[in-house]
Amino acid sequence: MRRLTIGVVIALTAGVIAFAPASVGATNLAAPIRLQQVATGIDHPVALAWRNGRSSPIYVAEQTGSLVTVAHGHVTSTLLTVSVSHGEEEGLLGIAFSHDGKKLYIDYTDPKGDIHIVEYTMNGNLVNKNTRRQLMMIPHHSASNHNGGDLVIGPDNMLYISVGDGGGSGDTFHNGQNKNSLLAKILRINPNKSGSHAFTIPKDNPWANTPYTKAMWMWGLRNPWRFSIDRKTHDMWIGDVGQDSWEEIDYAKAGQKGINWGWPLREGKHPFNGGARPPGARDPIFERSHDTGDCAIIGGYVYRGSAIANFQGAYVFGDECTGEIRSITQSGGHLAQSRDLNLNVSQLSTFGEGPQGEIYAASLGGTLYVIAPK
Q: Which residue of 100, 174, 229, 324 has the fewest CB atoms within a 10 Å radius of its CB?
């Protein structure tokens, strides 16, 4: 085996790479890294999750409708299959586990195109299909694109949900700046029942006492395909897919809520549809022009692993069309560093954060990688 310059590979067990900790210093986006293949043969992987802090198996949402486990370099079991619509941006789109591993949450579009957020109870390592409990159904059958679809259990045990603007072009259905719609939003709910209601509205939601907007956390988003919460700082990072010219990364410090990200009056940091920035709206921390080939940003994670020396604090993301993986850092909510990591995943579809903070990347073509020290 080639001798590693930073950290040492200990083992490759159940398809998961384990590393010896490397020294940690100031964030260095030029740290020597590579892509290490973890598994192949997955059917259109679009979301990754881990359960109970275990490195194996990896749970993978296949866009075609199945939740599978991956270990030893390949798919080992199919735990659940749901009937989905099959547009380019539809299907089984998001998965998440409660922190205790007892509950599974999925986000998918049904054959009509409507969005469903559903909870299941885990029975050991299996999904108890008889415990299916629908938390939300969001109508979305007018167009097949811009579904969002990501699910995140926050450090507060709340369920965060990303929802696109309803599809079409230029916010066809006028949901971006519409507080009476759950589309074009990040939502936040307590998945526990509240009387006859399937979930509970957290009292500290920004509009918890206002009709129609109770579940809203942030708004003015076009298609927040992937977002994450930094496990150390609890800051939120959102990859919002652009339209004609600009892709954007949005950043919010821990606890900030009610933010309007400006769509459709803004695309990136620029006017769109002839509109000015809405009062109080916020621009992204980072944008990428389509002039370089980018077309659909894939939000990722802040690196909190120990394998890559001096990489702590780097936010890793990419683009579906170019396959390029990049990283940025922030200081005081402003962009501090930006770098192309010289890593490329064809048909990049999603990222994942393993139990130890290492970052994984998946190709829609069926291959899963981990970002590893070189």
A: 100
C-alpha to C-alpha distance for 355 and 51, rounded to whole angstroms: 8
Per DSSP, the residues of 167-179 read STTTTTT--TT-T
CATH number at residue 270: 2.120.10.30
For residue 90, what are the contacts with CB-CB under 8 A and spacing of at least 6?
63, 84, 109, 113, 144, 147
Which one-letter amino acid corresponds to residue 348?
L
Q: How far is CA 39 from CA 58, 303, 367, in A?
A: 10, 21, 6
Query: Per the domain annotation, does 344 fall within a domain?
Result: yes
- Spatial distance between the Cα atoms of 251 and 118, rounded to a whole number of angstroms: 28
The pTM of the full predicted model, rounded to 2 decimals, is 0.93
CB 95 within 8 A of CB 65: no
Domain-embedded: residue 155: yes
Residue 2 is assigned to a structural domain of this protein: no
Question: Could you tell me which residues come within 8 angstroms of residue 74 by beta carbon, excluding any fewer than 6 positions away?
Answer: 15, 39, 40, 41
Please give the pLDDT value at position 23. 41
- Residues 277/228, Cβ–Cβ less than 8 Å: no
CA distance 374 to 372: 6
At 270-309, the pLDDT tens digits run 999 877 889 999 999 999 999 999 999 999 999 999 999 9
| Residue-number span of the structural domain to which 165 is assigned | 9-373
Q: Is 291 helix (H, G, I), strand (E, B) or coil?
A: helix
Cis peptide before 355 (omega within 30 of 0): no
Q: Specify whether the CB–CB gap between 373 and 358 falls below 8 A.
A: no
Helices (H), the chain: none
Q: Is residue 4 part of a domain?
A: no
Instruction: Say if CB 92 and CB 106 are below 8 A apart.
Output: yes
| Per-residue pLDDT at 267 exceeds 60 | yes
Phi-psi region of 365 (alpha: psi -120 to 50; beta: other; left: phi over 0): alpha
Give how many domains the chain has, as a whole number.
Answer: 1
